[in-house]
């Protein structure tokens, strides 16, 4: 089992920055693909970004150029640096982990709220 705990959410104004962190514990390993997802009120959960063990990243188009995902394998932590935040980025942000080759993410955190005011 892998436990994931997110932190770093909060209330900010449009144009501000936030950095989310996701600390992993349990049967962790650098081989996991780590991802960030978000769910806005009344909407389905959507993929935001992911990073492989080798550092390859992927982003949803709406955050490209504004968000950066990174990982520190020594600390078992994944980060999501969010710049130039917009009101439409308001959501609960979830960290997730999966083994390479799997389509579905197996482990999820409880989420952290990000609210961007206009």
Tell me about this structure.
The chain is mainly beta. The chain is 0% helix and 53% strand. The strands form two sheets. Strands 2, 4, 5, 6, 9, 10 and 11 form a seven-stranded mixed sheet that branches. Strands 1-3-8-7 form a four-stranded antiparallel sheet, with no helix packed on it. A hairpin with a 4-residue loop joins strand 7 and strand 8.
SSE map:
Layout: E1 2-7, E2 10-13, E3 18-26, E4 33-39, E5 46-51, E6 57-59, E7 67-72, E8 77-82, E9 91-98, E10 107-108, E11 112-117
Parallel strand pairs: 2-11
Antiparallel strand pairs: 1-3, 3-8, 4-5, 4-9, 5-6, 7-8, 9-10, 9-11
List its salient traits.
single chain; 118 residues; mainly beta; 7-stranded mixed β-sheet; 4-stranded antiparallel β-sheet; 11 strands; 53% strand; globular
Rg (CA only): 13 Å
The major sheet is characterized as: 7 strands, mixed
Beta fraction: over 45%
Distance between the termini: 40 Å
Low-confidence runs (pLDDT<50, min 5 residues)?
A: none
Structural class: mainly beta
Query: Helices and strands, in N-to-C order?
Result: EEEEEEEEEEE
Q: What does the overall shape look like?
A: globular
Query: What percent of the residues sit in helical stretches (DSSP H or I)?
Result: under 10%
| Overall pLDDT confidence | 95
How many helices? The count is 0
Number of strands: 11
Q: What would a concise description of this structure say?
A:
The chain has 118 residues and is an all-beta fold.
């Amino acid at each position: 089992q892998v436990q994931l705990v997110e932190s770093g959410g909060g209330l900010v104004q449009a144009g501000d920055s936030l950095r989310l962190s996701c600390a992993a514990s349990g049967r962790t390993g650098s081989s996991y693909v780590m991802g960030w997802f978000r769910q806005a009120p009344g909407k389905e959960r959507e993929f935001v970004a992911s990073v492989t063990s080798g550092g390859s990243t992927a982003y949803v188009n709406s955050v490209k150029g504004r968000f950066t995902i990174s990982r520190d394998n020594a600390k078992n932590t994944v980060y999501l640096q969010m710049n130039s935040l917009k009101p439409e980025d308001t959501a609960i942000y979830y960290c997730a982990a999966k083994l390479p080759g799997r389509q579905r993410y197996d482990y999820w955190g409880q989420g952290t709220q990000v609210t961007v005011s206009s």
